[in-house]
Amino acid sequence: MDFVMNFTPGIVVTTEMIYESNIFKLIARKMAKMHKIELTEEQKKNEPMIISKTLEYLETIPERFSDDKKDFKVRQLLPSKQSLLTEFLFLQSVLKSLHSPIVFCHNDLNMVNIIYTADIEK
To answer: Could you tell me the keywords of this UniProt record (predicted)?
Structure first.
């Protein structure tokens, strides 16, 4: 499955707009449609992006900070890079053993992720 971002004309939904009957009904219909998207057999074979992206993120964690005070504080407050990686790989193995698909869960209803265009209601 590909990740696509592009410019979408319209306005970001506001707190006031969310209470307008025509807008919240439209959002509900569009969200229901999005969550009914069926994956192709080929897409079902792909590893979920969350796995590779999390591993990429974990790789960016430095082993050590050049500022000794910062390095000490980080080591006191946070697990090591290796501990985080070990924990993530364990979580990954548990999730794989469940044989459950990964579904949409990416702040769908965060208002800044909802763009309203008046002509979309037609």
So the answer is: Lipid biosynthesis, Lipid metabolism, Phospholipid biosynthesis, Phospholipid metabolism
